Amino acid sequence: MKNVLVVGGAGYIGGCLTDLLVERGHHVTIFDRLLYEERYLKDVPFVFGDIRDTDTLVKLQSKYDTIIWLAAIVGDGACSQDPELTYEVNYHSVKRFLDKTKRQLIFPSTCSVYGAQDGLLSEESTPKPLSVYAETKLLAEKAVLEHGGLAFRLGTLFGLGDKFSRLRLDLVINVLTYKALAEGKITVFGGDQWRPVLAVRDVAAYFAEAVTRNYNDVFNISMKNVRIKDCASIYKNIFPDLQLEVVDSKFEDMRNYRVSTEKVESKFIFKPQITIESEVQRMIELLQERRIKNPLDPRYYNTHYVKETLDQIRKF
Description:
Layout: E1 3-7, H1 12-23, E2 27-32, E3 46-48, H2 54-61, E4 66-69, H3 76-80, H4 83-101, E5 105-110, E6 116-121, H5 132-146, E7 150-154, E8 156-158, H6 172-183, E9 185-189, E10 194-199, H7 200-210, E11 218-221, E12 224-227, H8 228-238, E13 243-247, E14 256-259, H9 262-267, H10 276-288, H11 302-314
Parallel strand pairs: 1-2, 1-4, 2-3, 4-5, 5-7, 6-14, 7-11, 8-10, 9-13
Antiparallel strand pairs: 10-12
């Protein structure tokens, strides 16, 4: 059993990770500013705070054996709303904390650091970030590794997390599920781009195992590499009358990469278990039962919510 501090533990990954850590007997504390949430109701210790408040985190950290640092502005669109703020939150806050504490962190980076490249990419492949999001994650990842920590380069996430945290409806598989159900039509821009994909609960399982390891390394994690248009074809099997439109657009997301997971497979016991098809069915059930009152609420879309929040701040 370990005392674990999960920084940003009220979020999409943090919700199911917290449940898993508690299940396995660890003592978990959450540090979070509840950007996307109005309340935190889980029966675990909670500290309200902002990761930019380095002094508070430095005082807090000595109580814990392990620190998992999930907090960040996530996604290309959200990060582009205020690049200076993104650098402060995603990189400088991490760097300041590490410079003062010399702590090992378990950290989520992103496969977006690879940008647009052909071939199967390993952790030794040259990163070519195309966005502020990828740039800041790569910088933070390097700082984490320099201080003996572990970084996971995450594929594109999908699926349902825990019972408390919001569902992200801005992720490709999740949003296609909503569109297919609500509109009977999905539109795919380009479609030949490759992405590694992974269920959010499988991500949590990797982090939970990492708590018991002492690796100072970086790992790609993914369930499999899929083309966006092939992913969309899944919905045709579920919704026979679905209209599928593929638009040849040069103005959409240009990222294109496939990753090798050979390294993580050799070092970790856990292997991804959750399929796209099974999670699509679970999301359909949740949406059909109207458990999300308004799926168009900006809260479920990082870019929209960050923009709305910053616009409100700028008014004052």
